[in-house]
Amino acid sequence: QVQLVESGGGLVRPGGSLRLSCTTSGILFLLHDMSWYRQAPGMQRESVATITSGVTIHYADSVKGRFSISRDNTDNTVYLQMNSLKHEDTAVYYCKAYNPWQREHYWGQGTQVSVSS
Is pLDDT above 90 for 76? Predict the structure, then answer.
């Protein structure tokens, strides 16, 4: 069974940092593009960062320079390091795995990130 489990969310002060983890199982991790999405209340889900199986990285303009995505193919885990957090970063953050050859998408259940003073 395919499983994507996010962790690391929580409450943080503005300007603070948080690192999210997404550990996968049931897939061949190294063949998958990995992404972080987020959805704030009343907003549509948006892409935050992507790291492909070829280690090509893309960031949303809103997080560029503050967030960093990385992957560990040994541990089948993707990370999102979030620095200089702002109130507008508050959202549920979701991990997504995508196999571009099989065109398969898998989603985690999400982890809450709250930025508040």
Answer: yes
